[in-house]
Each structure stands twice: as structure tokens, then as C-alpha cells.
Amino acid sequence: MTSSLLLSLTTFLYMAVTLGYLCGLVFRSRPLTRWTGWLAWLTTGLQTGAIVLRWVESYQLGIGHAPLTNMYESLIFFAWAIVLAFLILDRRHPISGLGAVVGPFAFLAMAYASFGNDTQIRPLIPALQSNWLIAHVVTCFLGYAAFAVACGMSLIYLARTGREGGASGEFLDELTYRTVLIGFLLLTAGIATGAIWAEKAWGRYWSWDPKETWSLITWFLYAVILHARLMRGWQGRRIAWLSILGFATVLFTYFGVNFLLAGLHSYV
After folding, report:
1. pLDDT tens digit string along 157-178?
2. What pLDDT score does 117 carry?
3. What pTM value is reported for the model?
4. What fold, for 127-268?
5. DSSP 3-state assignment of 167?
6. Which residue among 26, 101, 117, 171 is least packed, with the fewest CB closer than 10 Å?
7. DSSP for 190-246?
């Protein structure tokens, strides 16, 4: 399918974007970093078109659903959301080195999607035939993308602590907190819409399915981060480490649960 070919091309372009940001960081080349940023915008635009085309192709096959329903499609959307979140942040608050840290997240997601999963468009199982599907998946993965960017900023903060140059520690710390807050609100919306969807599909809002449970664990961990920041005054390295731990929990919720714990979400 044309969309699959475009998405495969996107994978290689994200690899080029990652290498461009890495080289720009290593050689301290602002022109290279700037041109890589334009390539990242171009690639994101191409990926957006490919996602829309895949949606159209599903209707042409008589299936007709949003491309968000299996591991391949969710990985594609995850990579798209990560890069978009980074580009929006970078346009407002450029942080040297952030593209080199966040870029691999998107590239690896695309690479795993392209080479490790079925790329065919399949009919939806009954549980996925709901108007709540888009709201649930989109909010969850936009939240995950915010957490990925926050993780990247936390890694940069830890690497730069005590060093001169680049964004100040206070600036990175505050921006990480704000990004985590946005991700937390989106994840909250994702869990809420998922509960409504579950009630429509299975007759109950919560079933303690492994992915539901780990999503709740992830939510509580980020709630702890926000509580520690607002009520206990935690800043700096402690918040950075918690942000990294939080994203590790996100990755386990997304990947680990699928492979280690069978449940209602095993098709995702």
C-alpha cells in the first residue's frame, strides 16, 4: 500500500533527523541543527499525510477505521506525537541537544513498527468498534509523547548539572515540570475515556486488566512527581530522575505488558 511505503520512507527520514541533530550537537553547528529542524517538520508533514492516506485506504477496503488499532498503527502515531511535541516545544523554547535525545525515541518506534509488526489493514474486532477509540488512543499517546519529551529534558538536565552553557538548570527544571503536567492531564483524559469505552464494550468501567493496572501505576507515579514538586518543593535532580522513571513505566505499560501479561489490551 502507498501509505506503508510512505511510512517506511518516514522511518529513514527520522533516522536522518536523529543523525542530523546528533552531528549538530557534536560539532556545535547551528546551521546543521536548523536545517535538521526543517527536515523534521517536513518528515512530520509526510507522516501526517501517510496516516491520513492509511485512513482513506481502510475505507477503500471496506473496513473504514482510524489507523490507531494495533501495535503497528499505535507505534506510528506514537512516533508522530513525539516529534510533533518536540517541534512545538523547540519552536517556543529551543534547547540545545534535545533533538538528539528525543529523535531516537521516534526513530526506534518507527523502526520497530516497520520491521517487527504486521502492516496490513485489518478489520476491527467488536471491542474496538467504538467512537471512543480515537479519543482514548489520541489522548493517551499525546500524553506519552509529552512524557517522552520531559524524559529527554531530564536527561539533558542531569548531563548539564554543574556545567556552563546551554539552557540553565532552573529553566530545564521548570520546563520539565510543565511538560509533565501537560502529559499528566492528557493521560488522565485517556484513562477516563478508556473507562467509558470499557463500559460500552464490556459493561464495566474498570476490570483491573494488566494494561489498565499499569496505566494507573503510571498515572500515580506522575501524580507523585507533581505532588512532590508542588507540595514538597522538590526540584532539580530528584524530579529529573522521577521523570525518567516515569517514562520507563510508560514504556513498560506500552511494551512490557503486551509481551509479559496477557489481557484485554493484548491486541494493541
Report:
1. 999 865 544 557 889 999 999 9
2. 75
3. 0.93
4. Four Helix Bundle (Hemerythrin (Met), subunit A) (1.20.120)
5. coil
6. 26
7. HHHHHHHHHHHHHS-S----HHHHHHHHHHHHHHHHHHHHHTS---THHHHHHHHHH
